[in-house]
UniProtKB/TrEMBL annotation:
Organism whose genome encodes this protein: Moraxella bovoculi 237
Pfam families: HTH_3
InterPro entries cross-referenced by the UniProt entry: Cro/C1-type_HTH (IPR001387), Lambda_DNA-bd_dom_sf (IPR010982), TransReg_Diox_bact_type (IPR050807)
Domain of life: Bacteria
Identification of the protein by name: HTH cro/C1-type domain-containing protein
Length: 130
């Protein structure tokens, strides 16, 4: 199923009108209807906005196979296809995210310990110089 078809199906399933979704996207209803007809190339940002409103991930809106392209002006656009991750890859990504968060917490703790040790060292130096 193509991205614009998925968007329409999800919107209808949630009983959201095109007008309501267009309003949430700060665009005209006719502009939004072009998205659902596949007449408008979606930027990644716009796709993310739609996914957020429909409470789904961007990956759920993308069809299988293909990718994201970057234009000469630096903007990223969805070219109509995307490599969808399998359950195994999703689980691996989730595990890595948990590990990253854990390591960030450890770094924060170490930074606090270093700050305390620096304070103690400064206090020791000031006491020993007196």
């Amino acid at each position: 199923m193509k991205t614009h078809d998925k968007i329409r199906v999800l919107r209808e399933a949630q009983k959201i009108t095109q007008e309501d979704l267009a309003e949430k996207l700060c665009m005209s209803a006719s502009g939004y209807s072009k998205i659902e007809r596949g007449e408008t190339q979606l930027s990644i940002g716009r796709l993310q906005q739609i996914a957020d409103i429909l409470s789904v991930s961007v990956f759920e809106l993308m069809p299988n196979g293909g990718g994201i392209i970057q234009t000469l002006n630096g903007a990223y656009h969805f070219n109509g296809t995307f490599n969808q991750y399998g359950d195994n890859e999703k689980q691996n990504v989730e595990k890595l995210e948990v590990q990253i968060n854990y390591l960030k917490q450890i770094i924060e703790q170490k930074d606090k310990e270093i700050a305390i040790q620096k304070e103690l060292l400064d206090m020791y130096r000031s006491c020993s110089s007196n």
